[in-house]
Amino acid sequence: MTHSTMQSTLVATEAEKSGRWAGRNADKDQLRKEIWQALEESGMNVGPVWSRISNWVGADVAAKRLSELEIWRKADVIKCNPDPPQIPVRLRGLYDGKIILMPVPEFGTGDLPWVLLDPKELERQGVQFELAATSVGAVQVGQKMSFENLPKIDLAICGCVAVTQAGGRTGKGGGFADLELGLFRDLGKIDDTTPIVTTVHSSMVVEDGRLPVMEHDSLLNWIVTECDVIETQPSHPQPGGVHWDLVLPDQFESIWFLKELKEKILAAKAD
């Protein structure tokens, strides 16, 4: 291998570790790298770590802790991200008789961006909950839905890479969760009383100052780890709907339905 080839290989590796969406916020980029590195070095990861909502040892314990909270018991409809560490959350939801709403990973490429999992319907069809709880299985067996047709949400669960006790959060950097929650507010699917929750490894809880909060960032109300339950003290009010002026051009290009949905939302507000 030549020196130049070795250099390009190293650059590619560092690019992967920086994350697919690196460059939008340098502080968050650095924090994500530290979290991913620490998770890998500690051996607490389950499977790949970099540039994703990483899975971790104890995710099933955190899901059990979440299921014991009053916000869970009261919820009939739960929105949950499609990532591996939340498989136990989706599975518990189905066994507890909850309707689960899951986005197609990164909202898909042209089909309806959501799936609805109704445990009664899955049982009627003979579908195993363990299959439906995986992202691939959910897309195969769930009812496809648009943002507009989703039912009102009682509990919103987000995948995170780092969180703070002030309610700050960051995912893998693509901006999907904050955009999703903004759309929910615009469409009346959640309001200021809807709990926003995550399950994360305890090593992902960082000091408040490490995670800058932007005006469009939705804040967590609860953080559940493998060893603790944290009711946060949010430092800011929740944002309103989508801050369209902060949506990046690449988000409009990569999220196939976003331009049309923006037009519908703005037209409805103008009426």
Short descriptors:
271 residues, alpha/beta, Rossmann fold, 8-stranded mixed sheet, 3-stranded mixed sheet, 11 helices, 11 strands
Would you spell out the secondary-structure blueprint of this structure?
Layout: H1 3-18, H2 26-42, H3 59-67, H4 70-73, E1 77-80, H5 87-95, E2 99-103, E3 114-117, H6 119-125, H7 129-132, H8 135-141, E4 143-145, E5 155-157, E6 162-164, E7 169-170, H9 176-186, E8 196-199, E9 205-206, E10 222-224, E11 229-231, H10 249-254, H11 258-270
Parallel strand pairs: 1-2, 1-5, 5-8, 6-9, 8-10
Antiparallel strand pairs: 2-3, 3-4, 6-7, 10-11
Pfam families: 5-FTHF_cyc-lig
InterPro entries: FTHF_cligase (IPR002698), FTHF_cligase-like_sf (IPR024185), NagB/RpiA_transferase-like (IPR037171)
Biased composition (Basic and acidic residues): 14-25
Explained architecture:
This protein has 271 residues and is an alpha/beta fold. The chain has one domain: 3-Layer(aba) Sandwich (Rossmann fold), CATH 3.40.50.10420. Helices cover 38% and strands 13% of the residues. It has 11 helices and 11 strands. An 8-stranded mixed beta sheet has the order 4-3-2-1-5-8-10-11. The chain has a 3-stranded mixed beta sheet with strand order 7-6-9, covered by helices on one side. The longest helix has 17 residues. It comes from Celeribacter baekdonensis.
